[in-house]
């Protein structure tokens, strides 16, 4: 029967299409995963095995000591500490200030509200690179930069890394959108009950906006963790962040060659914390990303 | 081409594993070339059935036949059906012309021929001047006609319509249902439409299939189903104003509502005891010596007739309506009536089956 | 209404953040522009010479290293962005069409987003290493001799520009897929299933569904992704550092505009800040132009 033949063909076509789809996705997934895999196994190989060609696909001997050596060689613990301090304070203050500004822009009434918002919106599109030169001059003038003889202000480099880029206009914008979704009636009801603006912010707005705030905190932490160039410019050895420590630290003075196994071990240690954050907070990160996309 | 649904069943499982039987061993035969109304309340399984005929849902059990071909496993692409969605589903980024031509292009029809077919179809449904507009620029009624054109242009074996009139305003509804009838007559395609509005179904269908609980309750010409309902549900579902239902008793060959004997019939002897009595609103004859005394709360004048909003102790509902010609003199608050025996039905109290 | 209150306390909320923004965002914006127009700006004394001219701009546009970075950046933008957008779209559509394993694949594809650009750049450098890299190892299986992708002055010849650019583009493609895939999936899920049902009834084959329905309905989102990715790609910097290192002398031929700007901060010449500022302003103008395009396109955007 004609229909029977049609049904057979159609079944075949369906199976082929499923095979193609899954193969495509699997290949792409492997492409994505290969660098991670390579990073991990390289970090566990011995210095000798690194030199081998063709390279082995799995370490013959697992050398976990690489991690210890990497930590020592590149002063990584110090860098981790610095990064924690900088990202911690930056996130803390930055989040608070984002909340304040977003609150003012979304809920409070004041003269010049529209102007401020428009200015901020316009500033969002300015690339950070425009500010770098002047900011460098500014923080130098403040004495926060160590140009070889120590900074004039103690712990200056920390200030230099925390303050300039603490406020993120994008986060303010995100939060404002979220705050705006809180119905006006809640505010009026609270006012009638004699609630101050400050109390309303912390008792109503913030709890309702918790998911967005968590997203912002995580995005901020990720940003601070990954920042490279600014710390590189303003921070001297002891104040550097982990990203700075990675590149140059592992050249073996004998051979002039980079000791990849140590470098990769350091890379794993740098990547791991974010990875852990990803596992636990995946929803928040992905939502923050797609919000910024769909909002346009 | 006939459509045969055999033992059709669809079970939905939700995320918690709970099952819903949307369609339950549904058997029916849709005759060729007719306009069939699939009628029933929300959730009775009619839309699910329609989508299974289209191939967009797969039956859990049962088979579907187009003529002699078993199409149950065939994908929608190959079934040669036209479907008018409840929300029309017109491709918003294409013009009307492109929307209508889309199925023809997919069927690899020559561009020139496709153009002609499109124009002819547009003329048939009356949207010829709108061919270069986009759906967003059209009114609801116009969009629907485009949807119909798109469904028909490929000369399908069967045309399916999902609640075609429910999105239209009242004025447009009357107009559109005539259009549907006209188009079906001109093309002669077997057409099935799904609706919950019994008046719509009754007015244009060649045959109606009444569904409830995923099953066919009754099938036939509208007037026949109205006059001879198989069971209490069908009787209640068809007819505006709805049928009045009462608790009644059968003693011997007489039917009683309360103490009043309203009907005598030998068939009644087979069913004794408590029954449900249904009387159509138009089934009352006012009479001085009427068997049934009914009091009413107020009079609704609906133009050609008078409708009395009435109540009775044995009535199953708080009130029901009764229609009399406007020439009748209405005595205040209550009147006596005789019951027209062709408008009176007796149902088995347990299973609702009609006895008389 | 409640407006008659003192609105001063709103400013309390804004005081510190606005002060910081003014100091580190608004003020620098103007000052950088001013510096770019003042070739005599003395960077060691932070003193303007007030001799405003276009000299700095003339200087950089006659300066081969800058022009080189301009060209590199343009290549990066107009090759890696369209490519990664297309690949991301295909992956998103494929992901959207499967149910089992979808969540797992989605998480895998999103991994690159949470990583440090420089760190993984270094991993790519290891992968493409001349002597010990995996890529060369695989190539050897096909009988191809070791290729110098990214190494420099290793006793061997320096890797060709083409190969270095290739690795860079590949890395950027790899790294930027995650964001795009996520946004596309969101967009795909916003398309009403009814259109796909209608397409089935209209006998549309899968390829036509993709080209005639999915892509057109997704086109506003595709345009948005393209333009924002262009803007992001113009600012490429970390990727270059990650793969090739921060030594300007070794990497000048593959650096980007941003790399040039930062390099000016380290150079000794007295007018380097002016040159850097000029380059930064050039970058700013380019990004502004693309932002304007984005705004224009989104105004015309019809939401289906």
Briefly say what this structure is:
Chain A is an all-alpha fold and 296 residues long. Chain A has helices spanning 2-43, 47-50, 65-73, 76-106, 113-124, 129-141, 156-162, 169-180, 184-192, 197-208, 210-226, 229-234, 242-246, 260-295.
What would you say this structure looks like, in words?
- The complex is a heterotrimer of chains A (about 300), B (about 350) and C (about 300).
- In chain A, about 75% of the residues lie in helices and about 0% in strands.
- Chain A has about 300 residues and is mainly α.
- The mean pLDDT of chain A is about 80.
- In chain B, strand 4 and strand 5 form a beta hairpin.
- Chain B folds into two domains: about 5-235, P-loop containing nucleotide triphosphate hydrolases (Rossmann fold, 3-Layer(aba) Sandwich); about 245-350, no CATH class.
- In chain B, about 25% of the residues lie in helices and about 35% in strands.
- In chain B, about 40% of the residues are buried.
- In chain B, helix 3 (about 95-105) crosses helix 4 (about 110-125) and helix 3 (about 95-105) runs parallel beside helix 5 (about 140-150).
- Chain B has helices at about 45-55, 75-80, 95-105, 110-125, 140-150, 170-185, 200-205, 220-225, 230-235, and strands at about 5-15, 20-30, 35-40, 60-65, 70, 80-85, 160, 190-195, 205-210, 215-220, 245-250, 255, 260-265, 275-280, 285, 290-300, 305-310, 320-325, 335-340, 345-350.
- Chain B has nine helices and 20 strands.
- Chain C is an all-alpha fold and about 300 residues long.
- Chain C has a single domain, classed as MetI-like (MetI-like fold), CATH 1.10.3720.
- Chain C has helices at about 10-35, 55-60, 65-95, 100-110, 115-125, 135-140, 160-190, 195-200, 205-235, 240-245, 250, 255-265, 270-300.
- The longest helix of chain C has about 35 residues, at about 65-95.
- Chain C is globular and about 75 Å long.
- At the A-C interface, helix 1, helix 4, helix 5, helix 6 and helix 11 of A face helix 1, helix 3, helix 4, helix 5 and helix 6 of C.
